[in-house]
Amino acid sequence: MRLLIKNGRVLDPTLGLDLIADVYIVDGKIEGVEKNISASVDRIIDAQGLWVLPGLVDIHVHLREPGEEWKEDIESGTRAALHGGVLRVACMPNTKPPVDNPEVCSAIIAKAKEKGYVPVYPIACITKGQAGKELTEFGRLKLAGAVALSDNGKWVQNSEVMRKALLYAKSFDLTIISHPEDPTLSFGGQVNLGKLSAKLGLKGVPFSAETVAVVRDLLLAKETKGKLHLAHLSVKENLPFLRWAKEEGINFTAETCPHYFHLTEWECDGYNTLAKVNPPLRTEDDVLAIKQAIKEGLIEVIASDHAPHSPLEKDVEFELASPGMIGLEFLLPLSSSLVREGLISPLKLLELLITNPAKVIGIEPPTLRRGEKAEIVLFDPEEEYLVTEDFIQSKSKNTPFLGKTLKGRVKKVILKDKVYEF
Which terminal CB of the chain, N or C, has fewer other CB atoms within 10 Å? Predict the structure, then answer.
């Protein structure tokens, strides 16, 4: 099939492209990106007013399979990813059983090839059973397809175990992804420690629970020269330490999620369990600081932390509710606000959503380079729409954006020679 995308704003951070142009696709591969392409085609798509970009790479996704398929599975999760323009997904290992052995890793890859709408890259556990004591077999896990290592949901509390993990991972060129949260400070916490926690009578999580973990992990990365990635950062107190780490040349990257630069702790007022997440939503000052960290380049990755939960885990008392919210379908719309606010350019945004996350997990990012397979998203940055349960493709509907109007919508996705229209 010969397909021509006409008159779109073509954006590609891998090529440094930002121009009004056409994209020509032949038999599922990029044939050219130029102005005013004239060719014999089977279909023309008018992309005037739309962004035309490579697919996003989300490196923080919970697909819940194996073990909790009533919340999400590989098929439904990758379908949600497709609708959000996320065409590469890296899934976290805190499944049941966890991804702490090659067999589970291989099974996820096989299931994704059978049922997935987009490619899935497993992240494996740092320690066996995520118990924080004994390291997994990094080499065998990499051979089975693991692209990084994390005990996501749990911080590796033993500093010597984390130090050894950073050293061991260097041998296999794998990144250690830290869940920075000291449980001795956060245990039992439900929301951010502050005025809201006092109002609701809930135990709060102090900023120190995150920042203490960030500082320790940065120090260990400095000592070992291992590759460290700090997941879902949420508090302003991290910024001086991130600046220091950049000045020291420490081999690290940092990530945040759209809810940490869109929502504050007050979203939980009235015991709204849809806004309960870990780490918790923070203050307005923290929201502004996260935006500043993105602007400065201290935070280089935006990921969804897509965490599906069924009503069984959310329609309960706040203290019993599971933390987490879905986010695959909202990753690009919510992140595009950073461009509208003038904080970063569209190309810089796509570095945060495509090239930088791909580097963390050591894969080649989607690109519009000639000869590469078509993994293309058509995005309307101005369209407004109401988020309803029918709109959401995930099995679970747990998001505080339900009933809210968002700006920016994925209109079409081209995967090889298939065109998906939403």
Answer: N
For residues 246 and 354, membership in a common domain is answered with: yes
Predicted confidence band at 183 (pLDDT cuts at 50, 70, 90)? very high
Tokens of 327: 């986010």
Residues in CB range of 392: below 8 A, 6 or more apart = 80, 326, 329, 399
Mean pLDDT of 343-356: 98
Provide the CATH number for the domain around residue 390.
Answer: 2.30.40.10
Residue 81 to residue 415: CA distance in whole angstroms: 13
Write the burial class of residue 185 (CB in 10 Å: 0-12 exposed, 13-18 middle, 19+ buried).
middle
The gap from C-alpha 80 to its chain's centroid, in whole angstroms, comes to 13
- 298-348 pLDDT tens trace: 999 999 999 999 999 999 999 999 999 999 999 999 999 999 999 999 999
Its domain, for residue 233, covers: 55-361
Distances (CA, A) of 236 to 40, 142, 198, 293, 351: 54, 35, 21, 9, 22
Using CB atoms within 10 Å of the CB of residue 237, give its burial: 0 to 12 exposed, 13 to 18 middle, 19+ buried.
middle
Tell me the mean pLDDT in the region 378-382. Answer: 98
Residue 27 among the catalytic residues? no
Write down which residue in 361, 385, 408 finishes a domain. 361
Model pLDDT, residue 417: 87
Convert the pLDDT of each residue in 51-73 to its tens digit: 999 999 999 999 999 999 999 99
Q: How far apart are CA 270 and CA 264, in angstroms?
A: 14
Domain end: 309, 341, 361, which one? 361
Q: Residue 319 maps to which CATH number?
A: 3.20.20.140
Kindly state the tokens that stand for 225: 């020269």
- pLDDT for 99 beyond 90: yes
- Given the residues 100, 151, 305, 380, select the one marked as catalytic: 305
| Average pLDDT across the chain, whole number | 98
Q: Are residues 383 and 267 in the same domain?
A: no
Q: What is the pLDDT of residue 226?
A: 98
Into how many domains does the chain fold? 2
What's the Rg (C-alpha) of the chain? 21
Residues 343 and 390 placed together within one structural domain of the fold? no
